[in-house]
Design brief:
single chain; 168 residues; alpha+beta; Arc Repressor Mutant, subunit A; three-stranded mixed beta sheet; 6 helices; 5 strands
Amino acid sequence: MTDTPLAFRPHNHGHCVRSALASARGLCSERGARLTPLREQVLELVWQSHRPLGAYQLMDQLAEASTRRVAPPTVYRALDFLLEQGLIHRINTLNAYVGCPSPEHRHASHFLLCRHCGVAVEMDDDAISRTIGENAREAGFLLESHSLEVTGLCPDCRSPDGGSQGHE
């Protein structure tokens, strides 16, 4: 088994999407939260790749899939719901959204962001959160939330062929 994150390896991305949607349906049902068709459609679009999508990109994609244009407040309400349920994360530096691979438990978001291809990989690492919390306490700072976004080059974009393998 490799430690290389799934988004950095060739894989069946359709499985990622199906798994994320099934998980979201189950979690929302358990929590008594209403996963409307539009919310599910937005979640599916967010999961179409491991690249963060902005709200306006989502609106354009929703318009392509429908006969009517979806208004910005409608998309933002869907995104807010998905964020509240922990089904997606916001990438602050990009003002964009990416699917959460482990929505069953609340956690801080830590990401590796490839500056070349745009892929985002979530790092679920309690040690990072602990270190940030300890440093905040030592500084007398009341930590309410945190997000860590690390920019660089993914293994594919670092390869000699310049990323011709792709992530999908």
